[in-house]
Amino acid sequence: MRFWPKSAIEVQKISHPNWELPIRVIFTMTIMVGLSALAPHVGAKIAGSLSTYPVIASVVGAFNQRRFGPAATISTLRGLMQTLPITMAIIFGLSLILR
């Protein structure tokens, strides 16, 4: 996190337009269907690993960039980067338990 840019904005309460959630769902589904189609060619493990944080970061990052600008996108992606280690630990623990 040392190399990630610092957040320059304060937290604000903003209302979302009605169309945004359905568009995010469609965008995410398109990426997931594309990754599923790619899975036989790259392997299930690689396609599965590409379907978590990269998909979340691309969808949320793109919409934040469009609506709120680069500072909000940096803050959002910084939060995702901070939660990545615990998410990886939980997934690893589940993979050991469910084996």
List keywords for this structure.
99 residues; mainly alpha; 4 helices; globular
Radius of gyration: 16 Å
Distance between the termini: 32 Å
Number of domains: 1
Quick one: how many beta strands?
A: 0
Low-confidence stretches: none
DSSP helix fraction: over 70%
Shape: globular
What does this structure look like?
There is one protein chain. The chain is an all-alpha fold and 99 residues long. It has one domain. It is built from four helices and no strands. Helix 1 packs antiparallel against helix 3 (53-68) and helix 3 (53-68) packs antiparallel against helix 4. The protein is globular.
Describe the protein's topology.
Layout: H1 20-42, H2 44-49, H3 53-68, H4 70-97
Care to give the gist of this entry?
The chain has 99 residues and is mainly alpha-helical.
